[in-house]
Design brief:
This protein is α/β, with parallel strands linked by helices. Helix content is 46%, strand content 14%. It contains 6 helices and 5 strands. It has a 5-stranded parallel β-sheet with strand order 2-1-3-5-4, sandwiched between helices. Helix 1 crosses helix 5, helix 2 crosses helix 3 and helix 4 packs parallel to helix 5. The two termini are 25 Å apart. Bound molecules: D-ribose. The site of D-ribose (RB5) has 8 residues, from helix 3.
């Protein structure tokens, strides 16, 4: 299951991404927004990130105008590695080296054709493990140092 969410600036591209995912037989959970009215990107970054962090969705795709605000928001949720990608090289490496579990895209930065290439590359690329695994573990240690709870979310 792929969690998808955007603010108003990403709404149009979100619809295109959802259509693409469904056409390619991915299961999709749409966390909104539901129209082009102005909303706050942290709400949608958080909703997608929590679904991924809890294991309800395997991966997530989030979109705002630049992809910056929504990726910053998602990365505050424990266990989330959201990668903002503007090309297919970044998309591939974010999976192979960083084991990114959320892809962030800027709906005002990349056109729909490139965005779908980024999505396809990101979904098809696999984490390489090995030396990269130890680095992911170091990221987890940073998270642990600053969080009261070790990994995942509590029900509070
Ligand atoms: C909304 O105007 C815009 O600020 C938002 O979509 C995003 O680009 C923030 O990082």
């Amino acid at each position: 299951m792929i969690a998808v969410g955007s603010d108003h600036a990403g709404y149009h591209l979100k619809n295109i991404v959802i259509q693409y995912l469904k056409r390619n037989n991915y299961e999709v959970k749409d966390f909104g927004t539901c129209d082009a009215c102005s909303v706050d990107y942290p709400d949608f970054g958080q909703a997608v990130a929590e679904a991924v962090s809890r294991g309800e969705c395997e991966k997530g795709i989030i979109i705002c105008g630049t992809g910056i605000g929504i990726s910053i928001s998602a990365n505050k949720v424990p266990g989330i590695r959201a990668a903002l990608c503007t090309d297919t090289y970044m998309a591939r490496l974010s999976r192979e080296h960083n084991d990114a579990n959320i892809l962030a895209i800027g709906g005002r930065v990349v056109g729909p054709g490139l965005a779908l290439d980024i999505v396809e590359t990101w979904l098809k690329s696999q984490f390489l493990g090995g030396r990269h695994k130890a680095r992911i573990e170091k990221i987890h240690q940073i998270e642990k140092k600053y969080m009261k709870v070790d990994g995942g979310l509590t029900d509070e």
